[in-house]
Amino acid sequence: MVSSSTFLTGIMKVTPKLFTTLIVVLVLIAIAYGSYSLLREAAVTMPALFHPPSGSRLLMSMDGFKIIQTEHGNISWRMNAGNADLFENKEAQLKNIEIIFTSSEKDKKVVNLIGEQGTMDTLSGNASIRRGSKEVKIVTSDGYLLTTNSLFWKAGDRLVWTEDPFKLLGKEIYLEGVGFSANVDMRTIVVKNNVKAVLQE
Questions:
Q1: Nearest Cα to 192, choosing from 169, 162, 172, 154?
Q2: Are strands 189-199 and 173-183 parallel, antiparallel or unpaired?
Q3: Cα separation of 192 and 180, whole Å?
Q4: Any domain includes 162
Q5: 55-59 — which CB contacts under 8 Å span 24+ positions?
Q6: Is the domain of 117 the same as that of 174?
Q7: pLDDT tens per residue across all 201 residues of the chain
Q8: What is the pLDDT of residues 114-152, one digit of tens each?
Q9: Is residue 47 part of a domain?
Q10: 31 with 67, same domain?
Q11: Range of the structural domain that residue 22 is part of
Q12: In terms of domains, do 166 and 71 share one?
């Protein structure tokens, strides 16, 4: 009769690779079960690197971007940009921007807001325009020129404003200050600080 210790020794000598493989498989099963036990109630999320934040995903880039806003069948304003990046959250990042406003009054006054870079909410039309190598400008058909470093535009109210220093030159007035708000045709302007005005003949 063969003793059990001799029998096991015989098996070990005959199949050491099988025994090693069996041990490795048992260790892997133990690791997998332990990991499952630890993670089964944990919330697992994708790293931000693989899943960008909602609303900031780039949908498309294009050259020659245009938007037109009408009121009662008439063009209220139109925006042209040299190029635009359109994002999932309805934001457009723009370069080489010109927003052209037309007055609804009989004089048909035209106002151009010009800047090198900016951002626009494509649903509301609200925009912020920032200085690049050149100042942001507002030029009116009746001879006014305003320059500053940034402008904000609220489309629904036809208002522009800034917190930055600005200069306004017209046929009859030179005005400068820090921060202003105005209707887009520059007929009403409120200066916040450091106002200087010179009337010209």
A1: 162
A2: antiparallel
A3: 6
A4: yes
A5: 55/87, 55/88, 55/89, 56/87, 56/88, 56/89, 57/87, 57/88, 58/85, 58/86, 58/87, 58/88, 59/86, 59/87, 59/88
A6: yes
A7: 545 445 445 544 546 677 777 787 787 887 777 766 666 655 555 454 444 455 578 888 899 989 888 888 888 888 899 999 999 888 999 999 999 988 766 667 888 999 999 999 988 888 999 988 899 999 988 888 999 999 998 888 888 899 999 999 988 888 899 999 988 776 788 888 888 888 876
A8: 999 999 998 888 899 998 889 999 998 888 899 999 999
A9: no
A10: no
A11: 4-39
A12: yes
Unique residue bearing structure tokens 């010209």: 200
CA distance 175 to 163: 15
| Residue 182 located in a structural domain | yes
Same domain, 18 and 105: no
**Does residue 48 fall inside a structural domain?**
no
When divided into structural domains, the chain yields a total of 2
Are residues 109 and 33 part of one domain? no
